[in-house]
């Protein structure tokens, strides 16, 4: 069940000031927009916008935020690390 009631990024588990700023840099204005986002593409876009390779753990945080907004249970961001490593190793 999509979490339409979430109106502030910081109401999403694992999201603090720095990640909230990243969402803004990516042009994401409202948490509901995360439902349609690809966390891996968000990471690539963030690296491009900042002209800097970001820590890959940012992908885990993006994964957790997108999952939560799509109705997933709240999880610590590092619970997504294994998924990220498997996905990136397959590329």
How many DSSP helices? 4
Helix content: 40-55%
What would you call the shape?
globular
Strand content: under 5%
Structural category:
mainly alpha
- Low-pLDDT stretches: none
Biggest sheet features: none
**Whole-number count of domains:** 1
Q: How many whole angstroms does the radius of gyration measure?
A: 12 Å
Name the average pLDDT: 97
Question: Would you spell out the secondary-structure blueprint of this structure?
Answer:
Elements: H1 17-25, H2 39-50, H3 57-69, H4 81-89
What does the model show?
With 91 residues, this protein is mainly α. The chain has one domain. Helices cover 47% and strands 0% of the residues. The longest helix is centred in the last third of the chain and has 13 residues, at 57-69. The protein is globular and about 35 Å long. The relative contact order is 0.18.
Task: Based on the model shown, name its key terms.
globular, 91 residues, 4 helices
Quick summary:
The chain is mainly alpha-helical and 91 residues long. It is 47% helix and 0% strand. The chain has one domain (9-89).
């Amino acid at each position: 069940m999509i979490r339409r009631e979430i109106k502030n990024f910081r109401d999403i588990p694992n999201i603090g000031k720095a990640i909230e700023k990243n969402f803004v840099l990516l042009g994401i204005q409202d948490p509901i927009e995360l439902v349609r986002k690809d966390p891996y593409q968000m990471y690539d876009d963030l690296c491009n916008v900042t002209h800097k390779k970001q820590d890959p753990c940012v992908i885990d945080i993006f994964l957790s935020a997108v999952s939560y907004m799509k109705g997933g249970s709240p999880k610590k961001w590092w619970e997504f690390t294994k998924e990220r490593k498997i996905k990136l190793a397959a590329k």
